[in-house]
Amino acid sequence: MKHACFALLMAIAAACAPSNSPANDTATTTASTGTQATATQPPAAQEKPASYYENKVAELHTTAGEIDIRFFPDVAPNHVKNFIDLAEKGFYNGTKFHRIVPGFMIQGGDPNTKSDDRSYWGTGGADKNINAEFNDVHHARGIVSMARTNDPNGASSQFFIMVADSPQLDHQYSVFGRVTKGMDVADKIVSGPAENEIAVKPETITGITIRDAHDDEKGPAPKQP
Known about the structure:
Elements: H1 12-15, E1 56-62, E2 65-71, H2 77-88, E3 99-101, E4 105-108, E5 143-146, E6 159-162, E7 175-181, H3 183-190, E8 194-195, E9 198-199, E10 205-212
Antiparallel strand pairs: 1-2, 1-10, 2-7, 3-4, 4-6, 5-6, 5-7, 8-9
């Protein structure tokens, strides 16, 4: 079992195969910070217009602290919609940041991590895949991007947060947001004990609140430097 892989396929045959995992590289850049805003009540799933997903922020409540993510629907609308829809269904509640690589990133969003059976961690996903939305946003520290299989359209539910700059991932993975608060929490998570990049004492997402973005958290996705 290749625990360190970004496997998201639902098929049993592909679940244990190595996927197109980004290589570990190092460098740093900073992420901006934002402030709290009022949470909103989501409309019924079938009634959500595209405008519903604009200017939204996800508050990830974890056992290590809070991480806030602003979304980039202007460059990855389907990935933003997918994450928000899953979060509002409670899909991510109880999932763990199972993969941690210092100087690189932390990865979470696998429903298999709700189980204590670590042999399946990193191989789970939601009930559908999302087509690639590769864009010009640089994989800098604080960027949130989607894990996937070797198939460019193999993203599902797993995502990763960059703790360092990794330009080799650009145009290979779909960036859909950036951390506005809680990079200190991400740094805490990535510094935990691990074996073969799998967290030994993983931190858990206890819940996600989707709220309207504060003025400081709005705006288009950053352009490639």
